[in-house]
Sequence to fold (167 residues):
Amino acid sequence: MSRTAGEELAMRTTDLLTVGEVARRSGLAPSALRYYEDQGLIASSRTSGNQRRYQRSVLRRIAFVRAARSIGLSLDEVAEALAQLPDGRAPTRADWTRLSQSWRSRLNEQIDALIALRDGLDSCIGCGCLSLKTCALSNPGDAAASYGPGAAYLPKALHPDDADRSA
Fold:
């Protein structure tokens, strides 16, 4: 049963939340919460009826995950960052500041790559291929095919999953 607005205001920080309450408050689907739990990003306890219950602090951890994902971190990277916190606690503002410092250079690379992409958007973006006429000049004989699938000349910061591919 969900709580009314008045009951929600009366909640104590020690009160446990149901999956539905966390889903509603965080904007994530219950399946995403279970996945995050499987990945070790959040934790729950179980009732005697084996229902999940979350501490209210899980909402802050979820907000941290969503913020980190929005700047391009993988779930593995987010888990690594959260693992630096003692006893799986919720991140504080100081934690976010400390952890996010290491992500600044990555963001700057992504920004630079997006600017380069924007500025060159009216021409070929690197054999994905948008212009067959220009392609004959920029990529004669389809040499970029040797780099593998996708836009071979797209800046690496814009395809971090392929970071090991040289272009």
About this structure: The radius of gyration is 22 Å.
